[in-house]
Design a protein that fits this description.
mainly alpha; 116 residues; 5 helices
Length: 116
C-alpha cells in the first residue's frame, strides 16, 4: 500500500498533470486572482470618483436653486470620513437624504436656527 501525497491542486491529480504542469497551473491561478483583484480595485476607484464628482454637481445644483447654502455644501465636500457630516454627505450623494433635510441636520449639529 502506498501513501497518498497531498498536492497543492486536487484538479492536478484529476487531470493527470506532471509536477511542472502543476506548478504552471498554480502560477496561472495565482496570476488570475491578482488580475481580478486589481481589476475590481480599479473599478471601485472609478465608481467612487464618479460618485464624488456627481455629488459635487448635485451640490452645485442645490446651491443654484437655493435649497442649500455654499457654506453647507463646502462642509459636505470637506467632511472627514469619521464625522457625522460625512454620513450626511453620503446620504445626499446616494439620494437617501434630501438636500433640505441635510441642511437642517447640519444646522442642528451646529446649533443654528433654521432659515425662513
Amino acid at each position: 500500500m502506498t501513501a497518498c501525497t497531498p498536492t497543492p491542486l486536487v484538479l492536478a491529480d484529476a487531470l493527470g498533470l506532471s509536477d511542472n504542469e502543476e506548478k504552471i497551473l498554480t502560477l496561472c491561478i495565482i496570476l488570475l486572482a491578482i488580475m481580478v483583484f486589481v481589476g475590481i480595485t480599479a473599478i471601485r476607484r472609478v465608481v467612487e470618483t464618479k460618485a464624488r464628482e456627481q455629488t459635487k454637481r448635485d451640490l452645485a445644483a442645490f446651491i443654484a436653486e437655493g435649497t442649500m447654502t455654499t457654506e453647507d455644501a463646502m462642509r459636505i465636500i470637506r467632511a472627514d470620513l469619521n464625522e457625522p457630516e460625512q454620513k450626511i454627505a453620503t446620504g445626499v450623494a446616494w439620494g437617501t437624504i434630501k438636500p433640505e433635510k441635510a441642511e437642517a441636520l447640519l444646522r442642528s449639529m451646529r446649533g443654528e436656527t433654521a432659515k425662513r
